[in-house]
Design a protein that fits this description.
Number of helices: 7
Number of domains: 2
Shape: elongated
Strand content: 25-35%
Helix content: 10-25%
Length: about 375
């Protein structure tokens, strides 16, 4: 009797012992759990790039379950203002490459000459997220936005339009104050021959090589041409360059030692173009393309207008740097009424041809 009871009792217990581990194992094989965080990197544009116009921000990302979105934040380091953007998963190519276009142009935006962002230094931070809510660490890049040409307030030559030309002898100077947020790469000076008899401007031109102008100012004129005989110039590279420019002005390329006692006068209209080092960054992988911002006008520091009304007037105390900030919309030194008043004294929208109306008479004697 006892044996049969033991047998009946033993098998149900054994069955339960075997069944429970099997059921427990099936419960533990649930759906996979995402424990990895996304990775992200900014690859373009290069760090500290000086950027002109609308530009592309690009990089790479990765996640075992796929990146669901990328948050982009553009912060102006000077003002602290920030602008957020979101890149959705559908805009991530092959799940690993992302790109976004920044600083759109809109002619209706008059505050910053049509650009979304004012000139300045920016920190751009980017963070990737996946569908499980995991986020990557922030990747940051600093860039400089510059959409404003260099500003030149010219002190020499000074004459404009029909004024009697500024006169020079065997040394020709260029003087003025330059302002730019970054580096002025080139200064191109072009002379246009003027026929005083027919009062016509020639379509021909003389381009002068002007280098090492970084120290030029109103108080520190830059010599752009000077007469030397070939013997006087010798092998001195500076003298040779100045002599080359001088002979270009007279369009003969010859030494004038035979007529050194005579004088020859030529009149020119002068055009000056400054170009900064900003580049365009739109195609990921390149090192920047195109030329920088180039001047279309410069400002004449004459005593009857610009100088008396703006530069020495205590209300304004205008400088090239302050003028540049007015032009790019970042000034904090003047009220709106003062800016309107200042603009009445300068040829803000003159074309380059009008700016060329600055004729120095160049004397060879």
């Amino acid at each position: 009797m006892s044996t049969r009871r033991y047998t009946r009792f033993f098998f149900p217990v054994f069955f339960l012992i075997v069944l429970i581990p099997l059921v427990s194992c099936q419960v533990g094989l649930g759906s996979a759990v995402d424990t990895q965080v996304p990775t992200l990197q900014i690859t373009y544009p290069p760090a500290s790039s000086v950027i002109k116009g609308t530009f592309s921000l690009a990089g790479t990302c990765d996640d075992d379950q796929g990146v669901s979105s990328i948050a982009v934040n553009v912060r102006n380091i000077t003002t602290g203002s920030s602008t957020p953007y979101t890149i959705s998963s559908g805009d991530i190519t092959n799940g690993t490459n992302w790109k976004i276009s920044l600083n759109a142009y809109d002619s209706a935006n008059t505050a910053y000459n049509g650009w979304q962002f004012p000139d300045g230094k920016y920190e751009i931070t980017v963070t990737a997220s996946d569908s499980a809510g995991h986020t990557s660490g922030s990747s940051a890049r600093t860039v400089i936005i510059d959409n404003t040409p260099p500003v030149l307030i010219l002190s020499s030559p000074l004459k404009t339009g029909s004024d009697e030309a500024s006169t020079y002898g065997r040394t020709i100077n260029l003087a003025g104050d330059i302002a730019d947020d970054n580096t002025v790469s080139t200064l191109a000076m072009t002379l246009y021959p003027y026929n005083t008899a027919t009062k016509t401007l020639s379509s021909a031109s003389v381009s002068l090589d002007v280098t090492d102008f970084s120290q030029m100012s109103t108080d520190n004129p830059l010599i752009i041409a000077r007469y030397y005989t070939a013997a006087e110039a010798g092998t001195d590279t500076t003298k040779l360059a100045l002599r080359k420019n001088y002979l270009k002005i007279y369009n003969d390329g010859s030494d004038d030692s035979s007529d050194i006692g005579t004088a020859e006068t030529k009149t020119y209209y002068c055009g000056i173009i400054l170009t900064d080092n900003a580049k365009t960054y739109t195609t990921a992988g390149d090192s920047g393309t195109g030329t920088g911002n180039a001047t279309s006008v410069y400002y004449i520091n004459n005593t009857t207008g610009f100088y008396d009304k703006l530069m020495t007037e205590s209300t304004y105390n205008l400088t090239a740097l302050k003028l540049k900030n007015i032009l790019n919309g970042t000034t904090t030194e003047y009220t709106a009424a003062q800016i309107t008043a200042i603009k009445t004294f300068w040829p803000l929208r003159e074309t380059l041809r009008r700016a060329r109306r600055s004729p120095p008479a160049l004397l060879r004697r």
